[in-house]
Description:
With 491 residues, this protein is of the alpha/beta class. Helices cover 40% and strands 20% of the residues.
Amino acid sequence: MSVCKVLAFDFGASSGRAMLIAYDGKTLDLQEMHRFSNDPVMIGDNFYWDVLRLFHEIKTGILKTVNAGHKDIMAIGFDTWGVDFGLFDENGRLLGNPYHYRDTRKDGMLEQLDKEVGKKYVFDRTGIEFAFFNTVLQLMALRGDPALKAAKHLLFMPDIFNYFLTGEMKNEYTEASTSQLLDARSKTWDYELMERLDIPSHIFKEIVHPGTIVGYLTDALCEELGCPKIPVIAVGSHDTASAVASVPVAEDYPYAFISSGTWALMGTELEEPEITDASYTYSFTNEGSICGKIQFMKNIMGLWIVQECRRQWEREGKSFSFSDLEQAARKAAPHRSFINPDDPSFAPPGNMPRRIREFCEKTGQPVPETEGEIIRCAMESLALKCRMVSDALEDVQGKKLEAIHMLGGGIKDTMLCEFVACATKKKVAAGPVEATATGNALIQLMALDKIGNLAEARAIVRDSFPITYYEPKNQEEWDAAYATFKKYVTL
């Protein structure tokens, strides 16, 4: 077959990029065409995404690709983080920049939701765990806001970009599932829940599934960018769904995935949602995935903690690369003190080293002082939290996990991969690094009938990218560390 090229836009919380993926019928070749920062803006007391600037970067990414001689790209797809959205009026005009999920306006809304309808009622319908940033809480905080009253349409972040390019308004399934307003079983909007929470149901759009052509570039954009009417395909628009599409499993066996980056998303794939008392107790979530599957998983605070430590030290005039921090951590004493990575104190941006010290002091542990001790504490704690989630997955499903597949940029931190293997006592297969962009492209290629199915797509991943394996070591030491960790941390 001739080479098929698609353009995958992958947005993270701090940066985005346009990746050109070429498929020759056997393997994938990835080329970064444009990279840009994603800089949220604080205005007064509120935190926003600069969505118009991001759309400018999208156009720049397409223009760079076309000018590099790739006018033959066959499709474009977008993936972003979950939960955040924009509101539009009856004329399709944006009513304001989308709020950032770390904005504080929804503080207290979880308690209000529990009071109004009950958390268990919501979980039994949506299968989604309760997180401080969920769309349902953001919308509850907007009740009475003039923007919500004027809104005729709600689009999630990848839906916004699809709309800006094509003029078509749709809600993609995997992204919609993060809202905690979707019926997990029927995969349709839960209008009854919306009514009980006084959230306007008319603003939600038709749900489309990964692999659907949303529309084509508008004539105006084609003229501006000098390109043909390229189709825009709904991929696993929630970045975790695209990442999971690239898990390079060769057979059906019990495994867990960890999509590792700013967040660590750990779970497994199911054919149907697991909505039980046990999954509610453990706070697992049932998010939409590709090919009709469910991602049964937990959100774990990932390398955000390390990233924020580095940013704080930069503010103090200390310049460290991530490699510098890893080397310092390797020299620090092991298993000395632990934190709960998901403690609310670690969620906001700010002085993370101080918060780590405060957690350790408050819990009566040795207080880490040096940069190496702080990073070692954070990394060991993250690995041990993965052990806790692994144990819970096995308990809920009643079967042992045979391996863990780690994906994404976080696997470039080899110490983290080693620690996860040791902490969980599982073999870890790490790769691919560019998991999300790869999965984004695979779904586009399936929609274009260039790849037959998910098994074929994953075989292509195995043939295209290196996989690094890590074996568990020092089991007695890590078991003892886990016993100590559980004194301070629960699910």
